[in-house]
Amino acid sequence: MGTTVNRKKLRQIVSWYIACGLDWFEWQYTIAVGLVLLWVTLICAIDYPLHADSRQMTSRLAPHIALEQAKPRLAKRDLTPRDLAHDFVASLPEFNEHVEQLRALNSLADKNSVVITRIDYRYEQLPALPIRKLALRMDVRGDEAQQQSFLRTTLNAFPNLSVARLAYTKSADGAAKLDQKLDLNLYYRLLPKAAS
Question: pTM of the full predicted structure?
Answer without folding.
Answer: 0.54
